[in-house]
Design goal:
alpha/beta; Ribosomal Protein L25, Chain P; Alpha/beta knot; 32% helix; elongated
């Protein structure tokens, strides 16, 4: 954005101009990934759309800054996880290789980075978020345990207290919370021991066995509401 104007180029501009048939004079909410603004289209042609910025839009800050450390699962379902986690307000998504992650997913994840970032950006637009979440490079399980946060939760299928009951009573706006969600095959006993030794709180969501992507979305929703 420069001199009270903002410019959109490339595929998104073409979609706005050709598919949505945007015209001069139409107003949109736009974001520079830091702030949101009300803007009016000055020109929409080909792969270039120019906006005149009218005024800033007040946007609420997230009460809790959530990092979702999600075990890699089949990519179509992992993309669903990114989409829903973005809509719910996570700040970061960290793909994680665990012992029972399907072979080859970790190595192939680098090639998906651009696609995952695009999914997060598009989901942010749909949810009217100012800033898209960071999609971090995939890490090994041991590295994910070093994630820093005031509240760190390790999702278990059973034998752990419900997440709502385990939430710390001294929650404050701006807290960082980290969620570690396992793969389709669950955790190994060795991974459970490592997580416990690193200080992660084991928690459960349901007496039923949930898909990994369901567990991730449900846990994020619980945390967001707990800090509202």
């Amino acid at each position: 954005m420069r001199g009270g104007e903002a410019e959109l180029r490339g595929e998104e501009a073409r979609h706005l101009a050709r598919v949505l048939r945007a015209e001069a004079g139409q107003r949109y909410e736009i974001s520079d990934n830091r702030c949101a603004y009300l803007a009016e289209i000055v020109e929409a042609r080909g792969d270039r759309v120019v906006f005149r910025v009218l005024e800033p839009i007040e946007t609420p800050a997230f009460a809790v800054r959530i990092t979702l450390c999600a075990a890699l699962i089949k990519f179509d379902r992992f993309e669903w996880t990114i989409e829903k986690a973005t809509e719910l307000g996570v700040e970061r998504v960290v793909p994680v290789e665990t012992a029972r992650v399907e072979r080859g997913l970790f190595e192939a994840s680098d090639k998906r980075a651009e696609r995952w970032a695009r999914i997060a950006r598009e989901s942010s637009q749909q949810a009217r978020r100012v800033r898209a979440p960071e999609i971090a490079p995939a890490v090994r399980f041991a590295a994910s345990l070093a994630e820093e946060a005031e509240h760190r939760y390790f999702l278990e299928e059973a034998g752990a207290p419900p997440l709502l009951r385990a939430l710390a009573p001294n929650r404050a706006a701006g807290d960082r919370a980290a969620l570690l969600v396992g793969p389709e095959g669950g955790w190994t006993d060795a991974e459970r021991r490592l997580a416990a030794a690193a200080g992660w709180q084991p928690v459960s969501l349901s007496p039923l066995v949930l898909r990994a992507e369901t567990a991730a979305a449900a846990a994020v929703a619980v945390l967001v509401n707990a800090w509202m």
